[in-house]
Amino acid sequence: MPGSDLDSKKVLMIVAQEDFRDEEFFEPREVFEDEGITITIASNTTDEATGVLGRSVKPDVAISKANVMDYDAIVISGGPGSRKRLWSDKDLQELVADAFEQEKVVAAICISPVVLARAGVLENKRATVFKDPESIKELEKGGAIYENESVIVTDNVVTGRDPASAEEFGEAVVEALGNM
Question: Is the pLDDT of residue 124 over 90?
Fold first, then answer.
């Protein structure tokens, strides 16, 4: 509903430089755009990022240069590139931890909830992740209570399971932003 208080909200969407999951970026982005939310895209660099299904996007900012104060939410797309490019990104973990401490919305889908776990924001929280043994183990190592659901919202943390959950995930982020 454009014209709502959501049109003043700003979301930083994170994608891996290569092999992000197209639906997990483009579907939530469309949900955000429909609400009038301002979107900034970040990746490891500002070089064009490519999804596993061949779509691409040009990041506006490198993760290392993003300022958490500029956003109301951080939303991390999934895909196989997340494991290689995002899981161990210390700048991203710090961004997520700072956003969480400031009670902003932090969200991740597919295997990217591992970033939230490694940033320390899932301790004693229900969360979902792509049903992959390594990802589930990482979530639990970070203190999360893993549940195999499509989308889980706990306070200001939103996790989504897989590409089929992408639109529902985007809607849950919008709802969380509306509750801020």
Answer: yes
d(CA 131, CA 49): 25
**58-78: burial string, b at 16+ Cβ within 10 Å, e else:** ebebebeebebeebbbbbbbb
Across the chain, mean pLDDT equals: 96
Looking at the domain 5-178, which fold is it? Rossmann fold (3.40.50)
Instruction: Give residue limits of the domains in the chain.
Output: 5-178
Q: How far is CA 57 from CA 10, 40, 95, 104, in A?
A: 18, 11, 21, 25
* CA atoms within 13 A of residue 135's CA, in its CB half-sphere: 28
Scored b (16 or more CB within 10 A) or e, 124-146 reads ebebbbbeeeebbebbeebebeb
DSSP state of 48: P
For residue 1, pLDDT over 80 is answered with: no
What pTM does this model have? 0.96
Burial (0-12, 13-18, 19+ Cβ within 10 Å), 1:
exposed
